[in-house]
């Protein structure tokens, strides 16, 4: 989106949750991310405060990614 307002990014070091919130065309959007190395998982929560509005990605593709420690 362009021309957004109320843009905020955050990272909570205690919960390992990062995210972004913004308002576009009167709709408040939010995205939260959590990654777990032991579980090899990435969780994404997409939300909008207006019913019927697409809050997520148009195309979401699942890919297998190898999570390994750097050498």
Describe the sheet with the most strands. 4 strands, antiparallel
The count of β-strands is 4
Backbone structural class: mainly beta
Strand content: over 45%
Helix content: under 10%
List the secondary-structure elements in sequence, H or E. EEEE
The number of distinct helices, counting runs of at least 4 residues, comes to 0
Low-pLDDT sequence parts? none
pLDDT averaged over residues: 80
The shape, in one word, is: elongated
Distance between the termini: 38 Å
* Rg over C-alpha atoms, rounded to the nearest angstrom: 15 Å
Strand arrangement within the widest β-sheet reads 1-2-3-4
In summary, what is this structure?
With 71 residues, the protein is mainly β. The chain is built from no helices and four strands. It has a four-stranded antiparallel sheet with strand order 1-2-3-4, with no helix packed on it.
């Amino acid at each position: 989106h362009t021309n957004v307002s109320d843009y905020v990014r955050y990272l909570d070091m205690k919960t390992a949750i990062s995210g972004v919130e913004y308002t576009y065309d009167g709709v408040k959007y939010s995205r939260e991310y959590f990654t777990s190395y032991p579980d090899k998982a990435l969780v994404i929560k997409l939300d909008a405060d207006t019913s019927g509005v697409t809050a997520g990605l148009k195309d979401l593709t699942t890919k297998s990614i190898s999570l390994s420690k750097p050498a």
